[in-house]
Each structure stands twice: as C-alpha cells, then as structure tokens.
Amino acid sequence: MASPGSGFWSFGSEDGSGDPENPGTARAWCQVAQKFTGGIGNKLCALLYGDSEKPSESGGSVAPRAATRKVACTCDQKPCSCPKADVNYAFLHATDLLPASDGERPTLAFLQDVMNILLQYVVKSFDRSTKVIDFHYPNELLQEYNWELADQPQNLEEILMHCQTTLKYAIKTGHPRYFNQLSTGLDMVGLAADWLTSAANTNMFTYEIAPVFVLLEYVTLKKMREIIGWPGGSGDGIFSPGGAISNMYAMLIARYKMFPEVKEKGMAAVPRLIAFTSEHSHFSLKKGAAALGIGTDSVILIKCDERGKMIPSDLERRILEVKQKGFVPFLVSATAGTTVYGAFDPLLAIADICKKYKIWMHVDAAWGGGLLMSRKHKWKLSGVERANSVTWNPHKMMGVPLQCSALLVREEGLMQSCNQMHASYLFQQDKHYDLSYDTGDKALQCGRHVDVFKLWLMWRAKGTTGFEAHIDKCLELAEYLYNIIKNREGYEMVFDGKPQHTNVCFWFVPPSLRVLEDNEERMSRLSKVAPVIKARMMEYGTTMVSYQPLGDKVNFFRMVISNPAATHQDIDFLIEEIERLGQDL
Predict the structure, then answer these.
(1) 337-388: per-residue pLDDT in tens?
(2) How confident is the model at residue 18 (pLDDT cuts 50, 70, 90)?
(3) Are strands 389-392 and 360-365 parallel, antiparallel or unpaired?
(4) How far apart are CA 424 and CA 462, in angstroms?
C-alpha cells in the first residue's frame, strides 16, 4: 500500500502537479479515484469540483436534477454484474419503491441520488466560500415555490427536486462561520449514526423492539453518571426531547419525591409549592411549572452577580421568606452554563443550602455539562455530584446531532415510580427476559426516538479524550476572541473578565456613536446596531451570530462557539465582518 505521503494518497507537491485545484490534475485525480473506488470517485469529483454557492453571489445554485439513472439489473445475484438499466424518475412514484414487487432497482437508484444530494450538502457545509445561509423572506419563499400538499402524488423526479430545494435554503449549521446557536457543527460519525437510527426506525419503550439501543442507553447513561461523580454511576436517567423536557422531568420527580400522593390526587392534595432558579436561568423552568400545574408565579427568580451567577445569600433569603408564608420550597434549579452569559452558578454553596432546608437540587447543565469531559475545565461544575438531578445536552457543547438531551437522576427507581402506568399491552410482567430493560414506563412519552446511538457511536469514535480536545479548542477560541476585542476600538464588553464558557458578549459601537456621551439617546441608538448588522449578515450569507437584550442592557452580540470546525481565522473573519457591516451605522 502506498504511504500517506506518496502516490495515490498525495494531494500536493512542490511544483503544484499534485494540486487538485488544477483542472488537469483534477481530471487525473478523478481517473485514479474512479479506479480505486468503483465509481464513488465520480461522485467525489462532482462534489469537489462542481459549482457551489459563493457568499458574494445573490443566490446559490441548485444541483441539476437527475431525470434518469443507470442502475443494476434484473437478476437475483447480489451483487449482480448485469448490464445497467435506465430508471426514469419522471415516470416513477413512491409506490414503485420497496416494498413494491419490482422495487429494489428504483429504490437503490433513488436512495443513491438522495445520498448524492446529502453528500454535496455536507461537503459545501465545510466550504468557507459558500454561504452560511441563502436568505429569503418568508413571503418570497412562499411565492417562489409551491409548498402546498395535494391529493395526487408527485413523481420521484419532483421529490428529488424538493430535497435539493429544501437543503438549498437550509442554514448550514455545520459551516465554520455559523455561531448563531448553542448547537452547531456537523459530526460525520454522528451523522452516520443518525442515518442508521432512521433506517432502524424503532421505538425505545421495550427491549424486545430495541435491544441494542436500550442496552446502549443503559451503558451511556451510566457512564455520564460516573462522570458527574455519582459512585459507580449509580442512579437512573433517560434521553428526552431536549433540555426543556429534561428540566421538566426534574421538576416532576422532585415534586413526586416530596409528595408522592400528587401522582393520583393532583395539585389540590398538596400545599403551594415553590421552585427557585436564577434570573439568568433558562425559560424552560417556568414553562415546566406551567405545564405541571405549579404555576409560573411559583418560580422565584434569584438575583445574580454582574457575571450572571446566582447569589447564594439571596437564595437563602428567599427560601426563608417563602417558608414564613407557609409555602413549601421543593426545588432549586442551579445553572451550569447560562444561555446568554455562559455563567456557572456556585454549586457547592447552593448544595449546602439545599441540604440545610431539605430541598431537591437540580443542575441545568444543558449547555455546560460538556465541560465535565475536560480535565482543564470541569472544575467549573464543582459540586454537581451533590445534585439530585442533572440535565446534560450532548447536542450542544459535545457536537452530537440534534436532538440528544439526558436527564440524570441520583436516586435509582424514583423516575420509574413517578411515571409508570403499567400498560399491560407493552410491559407484560411474564416476559422471558430481564424486565428492567423495558425502560419505557419511566418516560412521559410512549413513543420515544432513539437518541442515544449517535452519542454512543461518536464516543466510541472519539473517545473521552476526543470530546475533551473538542471542548478545550472551543473554549480557547472564545478566549482568543475575548483577548482581541476587549481593548479594540469600537467594542465594549457586556461584563468584565474572561468568559467562563464560550459565550462572549459585547457591543459593537459604530464610529458615529463613539463620540456620544453615555446617555439614553446613545443607548437607544446602540440598541439598533446589532439587529441591523445581523440582518446584513443574513442577507450577505457570510456568517451568523446571535444578539439579544438582557435586563437593562440593550441589544448586544452573544458569540458562542461549539463547532470544532471553527478556527482562529474564522474568529478574525467575524470581527472584520461585523466592522464592515456596521461601519456606516
């Protein structure tokens, strides 16, 4: 086999003869690739050297549709070597695909063409010369395409066009210059796992229909509990449809732990319950209280310091106030990595208060939980091991494809007691295997998506050390950004000091505002800067970063980094682009 630096595997040379950007070399490379890959080289060449959207253009090109495709054959040999036959999608419909009696050939052809569309999208997602977004206003997209559902089926040619169109206008969340949300990046192993999960198309409620997936969930949740610090990984847990639901699970279980009768008798059977969380916490705590009948007025927001961390003394003061009124404190939700500031509440001090007043301690580590994988940064969650429950979203900082959120509970069996309904058509007690692996009855859902496999497969592919390197890199990039802009003309930090997470919060102050006094007029004008720059970013398609107001602070940019594809050059580009787009404001 050729060595990595020579022959077929060599993509460059000092004289440029190995440069695939050279058209002649590209053709030669394609010929070699086709020889070694049995046709896959054709696809690779089309992807690598075909047209792509450029940020400077008004819109991206759509790959030409495939009306016909050569596929194999009519024999029963697998794989076969028969002459190729044409499949004309214009005359085929979904009913011609498997399980149709002659559906194997068109099915293979159709799925291969869908795969080509997906692979082209994947490759372009990492190409910095392509747009992050090809933005159109809602009315423009509604007018440009017919999205309505019809009684009669469309042919497969049209179906493939819908696939292309959908991805053409999708946000490239894996693009190295997409910084808009906490969930970014596109991991290849995670993507493969998600495809496999969809092909398996099963439900997570019993071992009998999801044997491997149920076992992987058991193994993975146990490992996560070990990392939290619970002895031997003891406890319980479940993957849920996002951090908001995981937080609601925690509230539900905490209420049941204190008042188990609420399960049968409802809220009328229990006293007024009060939950506590910081004023910078996620809105899902109030949503959960509303959904569970506890009420949003029963969620007390605790003051934060200037860095966005909960103030323990204010927590204790509010607990005493509530108790004096005859209400019952039942849950404190601390945050490890707040959504905007990326702050970590002081978990040890909060744990002491919860222990003192016998209150359930929950830690919402949806955003910050990934730092537990890093030896350098896990200290920021010191005290998490004392929590009764923890929310941890691997689809955020760990880059697992959406969705992947875990709720971990320290007390084993409590989740089952809280939620089980003993549905006899699913959870028969006389099955021939260990019924502890029928996990569906501890979930609120009946139908539950397989979310564990992509995390498990990525963990096997990267190891804990791979996740650690990913997280350390993202935090280093955030520090790099902070160090550049903290003293740069035209930038003002929202709070002082190096960020604890990858959240970097700042204002860009255009030249016209830099000479104004710090008064109400200046703040009013400054509040309009970030929205305009963000709109221009989207219209040009060059990058995306979020903004928001918070408390008495007017709109500011919140930069977050969770995509391992990002580099120092991408951070530099972001700074230059903000200045370019905001210079005239």
Answers:
(1) 999 999 999 999 999 999 999 999 999 999 999 999 999 999 999 999 999 9
(2) very low
(3) parallel
(4) 41
Q: Exposed (0-12), middle (13-18) or buried (19+): which is 177, by Cβ within 10 Å?
A: buried
Burial classification of residue 536, based on how many CB atoms lie within 10 Å of its CB (0-12 exposed, 13-18 middle, 19 or more buried): middle
pLDDT tens digits, one per residue of 451-502: 999 999 999 999 999 999 999 999 999 999 999 999 999 999 999 999 999 9
Burial of 541 (C-beta count, 10 Å sphere; 0-12/13-18/19+): buried
Residues in contact with 59: Cβ distance below 8 Å, sequence separation at least 6, in sequence order: 53, 134
Start-to-end C-alpha separation, the chain = 59
Cβ atoms within 10 Å, residue 312? 18
For residues 501-527, give the mean pLDDT: 95
Task: Tell me whether the omega of the peptide bond preceding residue 79 falls within 30 degrees of 0, making it cis.
Answer: yes
Which residue shows structure tokens 């030669």?
28
DSSP 401: P
Residue type, 544: M
Task: Work out the average pLDDT over 254-266.
Answer: 97
Q: Assign 406 to helix, strand or coil.
A: strand
How are beta strands 84-88 and 491-493 bridged, if at all? unpaired
Euclidean distance between CA atoms 219 and 221, whole angstroms: 6
Residue (of 547, 546, 533) closest to 577 by Cα position: 533
Query: Do 226 and 253 form a contact (C-beta atoms < 8 A)?
Result: no
Task: With CA atoms as reference, report the closest residue to 280 among 296, 299, 302, 298.
Answer: 302
Convert 531-561 into a string of H (helix), E (strand) and C (coil).
Answer: HHHHHHHHHHCCCEEEEEEECCEEEEEEECC
Neighbours of 40 (CB within 10 A): 12
How many Å apart are CA 383 and CA 521, to the nearest integer?
44
Tokens of 304: 């934060």
> Which two three-digit tokens encode residue 198?
């969809």
Higher pLDDT, 225 or 77: 225
- Of the candidates 46, 171, 18, the one whose C-alpha atom is nearest the C-alpha of residue 116 is 46
Its sign, for the CA torsion 337, 343, 348, 352, is negative
Instruction: List, for residues 409-465, the tens digit of each pLDDT value.
Output: 999 999 999 999 988 888 899 899 999 999 999 999 999 999 999 999 999 999 999
Contact 212, 384 (CB under 8 A): no
398, 470 Cβ separation under 8 angstroms: yes
What integer pLDDT is reported at residue 423 of this predicted model? Answer: 87
Give CA separation, 266 vs 263, 292, 564, in Å.
6, 10, 46
Q: Counting Cβ atoms within 10 Å, is residue 4 exposed (0-12), middle (13-18) or buried (19+)?
A: exposed
pLDDT of residue 70: 56
C-alpha Rg value of the chain to the nearest Å: 27
Which of 76, 160, 148 has its CA nearest to residue 111?
160
Q: What is the pLDDT of residues 535-572, one digit of tens each?
A: 999 999 999 999 999 999 999 999 999 999 999 999 99
